[in-house]
Write a structure and sequence with these properties.
alpha+beta, 4-stranded antiparallel β-sheet, 18 strands, 20% helix, globular, disordered N terminus
Length: 332
């Protein structure tokens, strides 16, 4: 499917299905990506939708602003993707058909030497056996598109193109020759540049933060705001994230902020967010050398998320935090 670059405008959450795949993740039209693509994509996922007058303009300005997408196509394996050490998504394909998705990644970029990291692991096939990684195909391209343009897998202005299948098979053959077990996950790294946005001050140059007690305390702030359905309060904690997305996409911050509050109040809170966990149960993962931390629920799901409903879908907002001034805030 194609996904329009207008997708980034809505500041909401993602609605996920139960399986890790992406054949239906690239929602187009009224299924806009809702504020955050820092997620793992799942089968049946439609992204959080924000109520909006269909006749209203999708953008306020800068229609010529370029947006970089990570165009991912995966066959017979599970692949997770990171850009500058921040998770961007995961694709899974049991085969033989490729799964594909092309999320925008402007909020995670630095000006030069952006690092793309992929991790490859075997997938459980339709016969409930692990699929041989020698049959896997992983194709990735960096696509530069203009805001408002549709982006379909395999199309667009390709800045860089990578294929990892042959290298993976060479590693498998070498492990067999050396009579060694293949290390999992298999990791690959590539470097690319962009000329549009530069968040190096946050991603590379900021001071690392290692106060895990403060992070756990902040997790309880987010939990309690969620439990009380305080949309304005939670949005206030996410203000650095709103500002980052406004800068990344040359948008007006008020549109993103309003969309976030509306999505929280109208969709994610009514879905029933899980808040019955304690301070000591939350999971902490340092990113970007400890400059940014992801906070998750005890089962590894995003801190702000609902359990799957009858249709298998759930709403999720990944929570990535860092110090801002004198307090922790949600920055992505």
């Amino acid at each position: 499917r194609s996904a329009s670059n207008r997708d980034h405008v809505d500041a909401g959450v993602e609605e996920r299905g139960p399986e890790v795949a992406a054949d239906e993740s690239a929602g187009a039209g009224d299924q806009r990506l809702a504020f955050d693509l820092l997620v793992q994509y799942a089968h049946g996922a439609g992204f959080g939708r924000c109520a909006r007058d269909p006749q209203a303009p999708l953008y306020s300005r800068a229609m010529s602003h370029p947006i970089y997408h990570l165009d991912m196509r995966v066959t017979k394996c599970v692949v997770s993707f990171r850009v500058n050490e921040m998770p961007l998504g995961e694709l899974s394909s049991q085969g033989p058909n490729a799964e594909s998705f092309a999320p925008p990644m402007n909020p995670y970029l630095v000006g030069s030497a952006n690092m793309l990291e992929i991790e490859v692991t075997p997938v459980v096939g339709l016969d409930l056996e692990l699929v041989d990684l020698a049959d896997a195909q992983i194709e990735v391209s960096i696509v530069r598109a203009m805001k408002g343009d549709p982006v379909a897998p395999g199309e667009g202005d390709q800045v860089a193109v990578y294929s990892f299948g042959d290298e993976l098979r060479a590693r498998i053959a070498q492990a067999k020759e050396d009579e060694e077990e293949l290390e999992l996950p298999q990791r690959f790294f590539e470097i690319f540049d962009n000329e549009i946005v530069d968040f190096a001050a946050e991603v590379r140059d900021g001071e690392p933060f290692d106060d895990e007690a403060a992070l756990r305390d902040y997790a309880m702030v987010i939990r309690d705001l969620t439990a009380s359905s305080n949309a304005a309060g939670l949005a206030a904690e996410m203000e650095p994230k709103v500002q980052a997305y406004a800068a990344a996409y040359a948008e007006v911050d008020s549109l993103i902020r309003a969309s976030l509050i509306e999505s929280l109040a109208a969709e994610i809170f009514p879905a029933g967010c899980v808040t019955d966990f304690t301070r000591d149960e939350v999971q902490l993962e340092p990113l970007c050398g400890g400059r940014i931390w992801e906070i998750r629920r005890p089962n590894g799901r995003p801190l702000v998320s609902s359990d799957p409903g009858e249709d298998g879908g759930s709403f999720q907002i990944p929570i990535l935090v860092a110090p801002r001034d004198v307090a922790l805030k949600v920055v992505r």
